[in-house]
Here is the input.
Amino acid sequence: MVEKGHVWGDAETKLLLEIWQHIQKQLQGSFKNVNVYTKLIDELRKKGYIRTISQCSLKIKALKKRYRDIVYIYRQNTEEWSSKRFIRRGRPSQ
Here is the structure.
């Protein structure tokens, strides 16, 4: 069994996201988290990865936070770039 704190590999993380995406499509709002994560770890086990509900939950939360952070940084950089481009358009070319 994989111990808590074990580093997730790229293939394992990709599989986790694929399963999570599939499970999310099936949710109708009535599922409890334990049921969702139980299904998730069962699917991971079928592919040879042993994880606990806690490990999967923490990984999903970390991936969501990382995604939100990346989107935030992208939006900040895009807005900054757009405003600089707008300012440059107002100036005559040299």
Remarks:
- The chain has three helices and no strands.
- Residues 10-90 form one domain.
- The first helix runs from residue 10 to 26.
- The helical segments are 10-26, 33-46, 53-90.
